[in-house]
Amino acid sequence: MKHPPISKILITGAILAITFCLAAAGPGQISYQGRLVDATGQPVVDGTHQLVFGLYPDSTGAAVLWQEAAEVTTANGLFAHRLGSIQPIADTLFAAYPELFLQVTIAGEVAAERVLLTGAPFARVAGELATRDSADRPAVRTFANSHRLSVFDTTGIEAVRLQGTAYGELTLSADTGFAIRLSAGLPGDSSVMLPNNAINSKEMLNEPGVAVYTSSTFKTLVTGSMTDLLVLQMTVPEQGYIVLHGKCYVILSGTTGPNSAIIQIDIQPGGGTDFPYFTQAGLGGYVNTEPNYFPVYVTRTYFVEPGTYEFRMEGRAQNPLPAVVQTWDHILSAVYYPTAYYPVKALIGDPAGFERAIPITSEDPYDQGRQPIKYEVDLRELERSAASE
């Protein structure tokens, strides 16, 4: 039985989607579907047929830009083919032409009118993309030559810029201008740029912090109990270490006999000396009763949980009247560190909570019966213990 000649192709799906080769550098492929019918409109006999596919820059005329011959198999006239599976389609073709038309030829005759390709094949090679909102304001735009993606706010002002040159850069802007910038190409602190007043105690989380108190008021010390020379308050947002440094002058006068003073940093008011965190200043005798100045420096480190703390530099006279002890020019500073990298050794009276506490037999020479034994510990054990909870 002789079948009528094939006269045309009915396009049932045209360009369906864009697919990609599995090879890393392979070109794109376009899924295409059609139907072969004869001159009477009936599907051709199931089997294989030789077709030629071509891409053109216009709907009529012009020279072919790409083509390939392919053998397709029909079922009830329907067939499918992946354009580019035989002759690769270069990405530059979509970049160079704003429109491309597909023409199918069989047995040397054009089987159907040229079909305009949809946007899917062009999307993967678009040089620049832009979207606009309902008020025709820019929303998102790419800048191919500058390797940049910009997002605009509701007024059409650029709010977010993501750019890559020799490095990556992210800029977040506000209606008042520059706001936040992250740049991998700048050194040190310059890689993160923030506006003034961008960080406060709630936002900094675990950033280091400092507090410094000063006083030039003269303080007179007494025997038997500690007198506060300077009291400092500090609030920390997370657990960490507070390192304190204190200095002052001790002024001793009134006697040619023994006259000295104890200066230390403590977290509790009053009380006795806390060995070994005090400094003693003075002599066992003087040539006259005039003032004698002794510079004193003390330091101490605490591990703390989040909260507000009060630290004091305090002092005590060691000898009774007529020995006179005064202090002057006090400075107490505290620095908060969120973590430690090396041992943070301390001497404490109660080793509870420290697995590696080492007993120290040296005693406080002024309170020998109060705490005859101290324990050397590493405060980092408290940090590790808190982290494991």
Structure at a glance:
With 389 residues, the protein is mainly beta.
**Beta strand %:** over 45%
Number of strands: 27
| Secondary-structure element string | EEEEEHEEEHEEEEEEEEEEEEEEEEEEEH
Structural class: mainly beta
Work out the count of structural domains: 3
**CATH class category name of the largest domain:** Mainly Beta
Supply the number of helical segments.
3
What overall form do the CA principal axes indicate? rod-shaped
Helix content: under 10%
Let me know the average pLDDT. Answer: 82
Q: Which regions are unreliable across 5 or more consecutive residues at pLDDT < 50?
A: 1-7, 11-26
What is the CATH-assigned architecture of the largest domain?
Answer: Sandwich
Give the strand order of the largest sheet, numbering strands 1, 2, ... along the chain. Answer: 9-10-11-12-13-14-15
Q: Say what the CATH topology of the largest domain is.
A: Jelly Rolls
Distance between termini?
Answer: 87 Å
The major β-sheet equals:
7 strands, antiparallel
Rg measurement, Å? 42 Å
Describe the structure.
- The chain is mostly beta strands.
- The protein has three domains: 118 residues, Immunoglobulin-like; 64 residues; 170 residues, Sandwich (Jelly Rolls), CATH 2.60.120.
- 5% of the residues lie in helices and 50% in strands.
- It contains three helices and 27 strands.
- A seven-stranded antiparallel sheet has the order 9-10-11-12-13-14-15, with no helix packed on it. Strands 3, 4, 6, 7 and 8 form a five-stranded antiparallel sheet that branches. Strands 16, 17, 19, 22 and 24 form a five-stranded antiparallel sheet that branches.
- A hairpin with a 4-residue loop joins β10 and β11.
- The longest helix has 9 residues.
